[in-house]
Amino acid sequence: MSITIRNIQKSFGQFKALKNINLEIGAGELVALLGPSGCGKTTLLRIIAGLETPDTGVILFHGENTTHMHVRDRHVGFVFQHYALFRHMTVFENIAFGLRVRPKETRPSDAEIRRKVHDLLNLVQLDWLADRYPAQLSGGQRQRIALARALAVEPKVLLLDEPFGALDAKVRKELRRWLRRLHDELHITSVFVTHDQEEALEVADRVVVLNEGQIEQIGTPDEVYDHPATPFVYQFLGDVNLFHGRVHEGQARIGDVQLELPGSPERRDSAVFYARPHEIDILREPDGQAAIAAQIIDIRALGATVRVELERQDDHGIVEVEMSRDQFNSKDLDRGESVYLQPKRLRVFAERNGEENLGSAA
Amino acid sequence: MLKRHGVLPGFSITLGFTVLYLSLIVLIPLSATFLKAATLGWTGFWNAITEPRVLASYKLTFGASLAGALINAGFGLLVAWVLVRYEFFGKKLIDALVDLPFALPTAVAGISLATLYSGKGWAGQFFTPLGIKIAYTPLGVVVALTFIGLPFVVRTVQPILEDFEAELEEAAASLGATRWQTFSRVILPALLPALLTGFALAFARAVGEYGSVIFIAGNIPMVSEITPLLIITKLEQYDYAGATALAVSMLLVSFVLLLSINALQRWSQLRRT
User: Fold this and answer.
1) Beta-carbon separation of B190 and A135 below 8 A
2) Which of A76, A329, B9, B118 could form a disulfide with B135 if both were Cys (CB 3.0 to 4.6 A apart)?
């Protein structure tokens, strides 16, 4: 079931939650709505579900206009951040709920409900919990039960609102891989909301990056990570270093440093250059004019990677560099040492107007 | 000797105070009642509490209390629902009005209800053509007991309803439940323990009610005479032992009823842990 979202706008009083959203979600796709809190991603998901009505615009499910259809008739499975399990029902009854509330003509028999619920419990690998109450389960188990409950009604679309947001890091990681596998098995069109870029990049087929009620970029995880369309996307999808400078004769000028910036012939008197921490080299010796002098102020080892914090000698700006532990060991760097920074890759966006993408240095 | 090494300090002093307090306020007066009643001896006691007139009064007292508490369970739930779920002009005022039966002297309530519901009263006149008499009948007793019990149900259900997560209703709707199914299968079970508490409180209050009832009941022996009134009557005749015998019987019945409501509540709460 494909979903088409056209010109959706939504305001809450003075606050514009969504500003003219257009989005096409293909059948069987797993799409992430990614953005900071307050960007409108949950509102958009709730509009797709029918839990919220848009001020303008339409939602089509497989070409059929569902904008004014009640949530109960939309056949969507909705999974809430805080599970929303019915506390007074056993796990079994929670999952069976969607089948039991059907009108008599379409309600399956008790035996069939039992079979179906157990199939779903097996699918989420929690068959042994059928007789427990939600309060007796862990967060990860509850969310899997909530998912099974949503799947019981055979939804055409599965919508998940920050499904792993309330879980601890390890369970979260486990569950998102599990969700990905489940999706590969069931191929049900799914949309999930998250503020965690790692989660979006790992799980989704496509990522929709939202900011302040607008779509910043739509693309595969690789596309949005490697070719961010706007400075916002660049900054949101990972740590970033900013260098202020200008573009002159196809070269980036940062202070006294000149760097090649192919594909950018234009002259620009004021520009911001972006480089990710792992896209910067630390050199012992200056390499012509293409290196920025800096001093190491902190070194932190984070598992497999090492993060080095440096202070630039020209304008005292802070730069973060990330490298593997092996690289770090071979360089043998110490706190307080004076070194040179060389960006391996620089991106520049026109200032203020994020739409224009000037080019990048490789 | 109870000894606890918890993080909460002052276990022994708070327990000691609780026991002392309960003894002075509840246990000693109650045991005095039992002692006084015991002076009648078994047969005397039994005869006192099984007199036909007394039996009729039990029926009225407990029956009308039950009816009032049941009505309150229904309408109190409705009032709580309206107060929590909807925004309307004068909501604060109505919210405050709910507590009025707590504050109003019961005699005032009884007199105004009796006037209102008498055959020619503002409300009673509409029932007269239908052949329904409210004041000075058992029905009047039910009206009075409903009046005084209303706040209990509203005030116990209201906070639970306020804390009820909207997400649960949304989840039910997304699973295809109708509004009624959502209410009866998701909301009501969540409210049930609070509703039972409110019901038990309203019932207990109604059983002991005296002031408002005697004005509207008419107090016709065998028909509209409540047990507390019989107790007063006996006291006025200096039959202290007989009065306490009735008190003891009421006490025991109330205790058993409240205990079973508690058990019911326990059971409904056990299912969710």
Assistant:
1) no
2) B118
- Helix (H), strand (E) at residue B78: helix B52-85
Q: Does A87 touch chain B (CB under 8 A)?
A: yes
Among the residues of chain A, which ranges form H helices?
41-49, 91-100, 110-123, 139-152, 169-186, 197-203, 221-226, 231-236, 325-331
Question: Which has the higher per-residue pLDDT, A138 or A258?
Answer: A138
Question: Which chain A residue is nearest to residue B191, measuring alpha carbons?
Answer: A88
Q: What is the pLDDT of residues B162-198, one digit of tens each?
A: 998 889 999 999 999 999 999 999 999 989 888 998 9
The answer to whether the Cβ–Cβ distance between B168 and A97 falls below 8 Å is no
Task: Give tens-digit pLDDT for B228-237.
Answer: 888 998 899 9
Contacting residues of B for A150, CB less than 8 Å apart:
174-175
Q: What is the mean pLDDT of residues B12-21?
A: 90
∠ Cα A180 A161 B181 (to 5°): 115
Distance between CA atoms of residues B199 and B72, nearest Å: 7
> How many helices and strands, by DSSP H and E, does chain B display?
15, 0
**A78–B171 C-beta distance less than 8 A:** yes
- The better pLDDT of the pair A291, A19 is held by A19
Across-strand partners of A182? none
* A88 with B272: Cβ contact below 8 A: yes
Return the structure tokens found at A346.
Answer: 């620089």
Domains in chain B, please, with CATH? 56-272 (1.10.3720.10)
Q: Does B168 touch chain A (CB under 8 A)?
A: yes
**Residue B271 sits at the chain A interface (C-beta within 8 Å):** yes
